[in-house]
Amino acid sequence: MDVTQLPFNRFIGLERLADGSAFLVSIPDGPQFKNHLGTVHASALLAVAEAGSGAFLAGWCGDAGENGAMKKNGASHQIWARC
After folding, report:
1. Could you tell me if 72 and 61 are in contact, meaning their C-beta atoms sit under 8 angstroms apart?
2. Tally of CB atoms within 10 A around 50
């Protein structure tokens, strides 16, 4: 899965970084991502964090199958969350 192709991530201009980079994804620098203090807005930071975690999981686990089961090297890993 290429997280940069998800509709919201395309909307904000999310970019995948080169292999070997210390980071997986980024957004371009621009005033649309700044808060009233001139720093990066929290929602922009969260968007990058969410996309980065998705890119990491997709790379580590592969694409999700039915029921959220993910497979890596023939082993089945189930992803779940408890609220």
Report:
1. yes
2. 16
Contact yes or no for 70/61 (Cβ under 8 A):
yes
Q: 61 with 49: CB under 8 angstroms?
A: no
Among 82, 15, 81, 79, which residue's Cα sits nearest to residue 47?
15
pTM of the model: 0.68
Place of tokens 């998800």: 6
Distance CA 53, CA 73 (A): 20
Across the range 11-26, mean pLDDT stands at 90
Residue with tokens 């957004």: 27
Cα separation, 12 vs 27, whole angstroms: 7
CA-CA distance, 83 to 48, in Å (whole number)? 23
| Pairing mode, strands 75-78 and 69-72 | antiparallel
Give the closest residue to 44 by CA, choosing from 7, 8, 6, 3.
Answer: 8
